[in-house]
Amino acid sequence: MAETKPILYSYCTSSCAFRVRIALALKGIDYEYRSVSLLTQEQFGEFMKINPMAQVPALVVNGKTLCQSVSILEFLEEKYPEIPLLPSDPFDRAVVRELVELVNSGIQPLTNNSPVDYHSSDPAAQSAWKEHWTTKGFTALETRLAQTSGKYCFGDQITLVDLVVVPQTVNAFKWNIDMSQYPIISRMYTTLMELEEFKTSSPLEQPDCPSELRK
């Protein structure tokens, strides 16, 4: 049976969807973009039949659906290995996955809208919450990157950790986090965002980006 074009359910500002968009771009995979507006809470409608967690991204490949961004990244790495995003050495692969989880488990889920809204409806308290968890995670990440980074987060090869660090840094800028505390993370962000695959995958370049965000 011939393979069909993958379908990515995404929203422009979702950091997790941003990760997957970068991977698809780096691996040169053509796909169909389907927007699920988090702004209008579209994820709580028909989309829940695709992902009961009401979260993006979701990737449909030949009629089968994958949710959770890191699972999608791992799938893409196995199915399309020609442009690898994991090192060949088993220990190095484990280190990359460790760094991925530092962001994926230690920062992103704690600063996502659902826990932030559950924590407080007060904007000041919400900002303090996001700053606390971002600062805690980025402080640890900066320490690890001092040990692992070269041109990119892990040596001189683009790996999965680069794909999670850039979107989380975009969020940090959005939340007015003082990034001068994190010179290595800041350097990684600047270097990576010069690459076409990262630029074209960014929130402002997506077809569903609201006009007010482009200003």
Would you mind describing this structure in some detail?
- This protein has 215 residues and is of the alpha+beta class.
- It has two domains: 9-83, Glutaredoxin; 90-198, Glutathione S-transferase Yfyf (Class Pi), Chain A, domain 2 (Up-down Bundle), CATH 1.20.1050.
- Helices cover 49% and strands 7% of the residues.
- The protein has helices at residues 15-26, 69-79, 90-104, 108-111, 113-119, 123-148, 160-174, 183-192, 196-201, and strands at residues 7-10, 32-35, 58-61, 64-67.
- Strands 2-1-3-4 form a four-stranded mixed sheet, covered by helices on one side.
- Helix 1 (15-26) packs antiparallel against helix 7 (160-174) and helix 3 runs parallel beside helix 7 (160-174).
- The relative contact order is 0.15.
- The mean pLDDT is 95.
- Belongs to the GST superfamily. Zeta family.
